[in-house]
Write a structure and sequence with these properties.
Elements (H helix, E strand, L loop, with lengths): L1 H5 L1 H41 L4 H30 L1 H13 L2 H31 L1
Length: 130
């Protein structure tokens, strides 16, 4: 045990540095955790907003899909008046490509959450008023 008899100040200094380093490491990890939490909160706030680029793009694609399907319906009505054979061929092609299913999926995705939420609120209000 001659190590401790030689220079106790080096051991004490090492212990103090160790405690200081541990304290600094804990403070740094708290700061890093806080920064990560702030960054995550900002990301969630940005992505849940209805004004992000992704939200605007999603709405634009949905509206364009709805316009396209309504244009197809108008096309079918016009073709039906002039040539029933072309009407049947066009209708079968549209059904074969599953466009009505795609249209319903876009409608449910685009309007579903808003109307479902509104319907639930209206139902709860009616139950409360009774």
């Amino acid at each position: 045990m001659r190590i401790f008899k030689k220079d106790k100040s080096a051991i004490i200094k090492g212990a103090i540095d160790l405690v200081g380093n541990v304290t600094k490491m804990i403070d740094d990890s708290k700061l890093t955790s806080q920064e990560a939490a702030d960054a995550t909160a900002q990301f969630v706030k940005d992505t849940l907003s209805e004004n992000t680029e992704r939200s605007r793009t999603r709405r634009s694609i949905a509206v364009d899909t709805i316009r396209f399907f309504f244009a197809l319906v108008i096309f079918l009505i016009v073709v039906w008046k002039f040539d029933p054979l072309w009407f049947e061929a066009s209708k079968n092609l549209i059904i074969e490509f599953k466009l009505p299913v795609a249209f319903l999926m876009v409608m449910a995705f685009f309007f579903g959450g808003y109307y479902l939420n509104g319907g639930i609120k209206a139902y709860r209000k009616r139950r409360r008023d009774k």
